[in-house]
Amino acid sequence: MSRTAPWWRSAVIYQVYIRSFADANGDGVGDIAGIRSRLPYLKSLGVDALWINPWYKSPMADHGYDVADYRAIDPLFGTVAEAEQLIEEAHQHGIRVIPDIVPNHTSYQHAWFQAALATGPGSPERERYIFRPGRGPDGAAPPNDWVSCFGGPAWTRLPDGEWYLHLFAPEQPDLNWEHPDVRAEFESILRFWFSRGVDGFRIDVAHGLVKNPDLPDLPPRREPAVLGPLVSREMADERPRQHLDHPHWDRDEVHDIYRAWRKVADEFPGDRSFVAEAWADTPERLAAYVREDGLHTAFNFDFLMSSWDAKDLRAVIDDSLAMLGVVGAPATWVLSNHDVMRHPSRYGRRTVKRWIANEPYRPEGPVDLELGTRRARAAALLMLALPGGAYIYQGEELGLPEVEDLPEDVLQDPVWERSGHTDRGRDGCRVPIPWAEKAATYGFSPEDASTAPWLPQPGNWEQLSVEAQAGDQTSMLELYRSALRLRREHPALGDGTLTWLDASAGVLAFRREPGFVCVVNLSAQAHRLPDHASVLLSSGPVEEGLLAPDQAAWLAV
């Protein structure tokens, strides 16, 4: 790759779910001071940037994705001054900082929404959101049949008779992006944080924002569908897939907003960038977000949702590289995040090729964490060898599994309540991560903390802690450290291209120039490695030139 290319084309970005990363003040919730205290660790890990989940002032109905003030830090996490210190200190460590931005909706406590409630139907204040009269003779029925991503209807009726739209929780009213005040306000928010040194933004629900102004009912369900960020979608065997004209997801008009945002970013020095959380039903639709005058990168959810199957993974990789290459954008690869089951737990059970659209992912059968961890190690080497950038979700480098047995009385995700206690939600991937082997709360909070972590940690995470894994060359942590070091040093890795090599059924093998080969064995039989000068790194032992099932290797050739 070119070492003079913009940083974001090859960056490895570490996702910090701030509530669960590190608690410095002992209140049981992670904070900015905790992130600052762990910057040396992140530097030693070898990541290029931090994506930080929302830190803005919020009543926390959805753990920060309900923003009441985009220019203030919630006291739970710190202050704007502390955020500025974090940005400065991260830069001193050579790490960039990318906070979340949540433009589809605000908190119901946002000043604009409170004004809209106070002024009543027909007021200018209500035009910034999506208020409508109901259907039926008395307006008692919602304006249409749209449903919330968290379960239930997407409309809530007020005492004055009008309904307002919320594609997520009722505490998260959707903004009206046809209103000039909304567009101007968010461009001002971007400038506020760019001027304080942030290096870009991750855009939440980037495929949302714009709605069909007629607010029609949903079309008859057919596959594939454009989905919200909490639901799985079908990994279709038939390609290409067809685009579904949806009334509130992935509408063409959204790209006008991002062209304006790109101009804002370009006002500032240092290759500021955006990454879109955009769920699109075809690779072509996803590529539209990252055209030259639009956003810089977008998450590759097809890769995350792929089964542990060589044919499926290769198809996703080929489609992604081909479609993004047409618009000159790099691919990004991700295995886990704060909205999905951690991949050691997904890979540790019978893998389902087709995820049912518009339904949350539900694992089938018992988990085999030994198998899941073995596959996760191989998947990490695959991800970090592919052309483009990559995302690491906090604790992924420790091999943390999903916590699937949280007691029901501690579940906090709004999905749990909104689904009528049928969907446990996302708390299992958000449990605070372990730092120390022996300490209380595994070092997440100070030893003298008076408050337990906001979600309980399992009692058997000692050997998964940073302290236990550091220096153990067989550990997941040291595998990630070695892979990230090699990725920085080897001229073949990062942005660029790949060439597929002939391999046995169930095996992925590709070459990157100069002189690098990655082999991943997803079959049930050992696979003989191609001729090579040396093994640079492997996810497990390589004996007599054979790569065992569910293992990966990086080769110098």
Would you summarize the structure shown here?
It is built from 14 helices and 20 strands. With 557 residues, the chain is of the alpha/beta class.
**What is the 3D form?**
globular
**DSSP strand count:** 20
Count up the helices: 14
What ranges have pLDDT less than 50 throughout 5 or more consecutive residues? 223-241, 352-358
First-residue to last-residue Cα separation: 17 Å
Which percent bin holds the helix content? 10-25%
Structural class: alpha/beta
Q: Oligomer, anyone?
A: single chain
**Main sheet attributes: strand count, strand direction, barrel closure:** 8 strands, parallel
- How do the strands of the widest beta sheet line up side by side? 11-10-9-5-2-1-13-12
Mean pLDDT over the full residue set: 93
Instruction: Provide the β-strand percentage band.
Output: 5-15%
Rg over CA atoms: 23 Å
Give a description of the structure.
There is one protein chain. This protein is α/β, with parallel strands linked by helices and 557 residues long. The protein is 24% helix and 14% strand. It contains 14 helices and 20 strands. The strands form five sheets. An eight-stranded parallel beta sheet has the order 11-10-9-5-2-1-13-12. Strands 14-15-16-20-18 form a five-stranded antiparallel beta sheet, with helices on one face. Helix 6 (254-266) links the parallel strand 9 and strand 10 (273-276). The longest helix is centred in the middle third of the chain and has 17 residues, at 310-326. The chain is globular, with a radius of gyration of 23 Å.
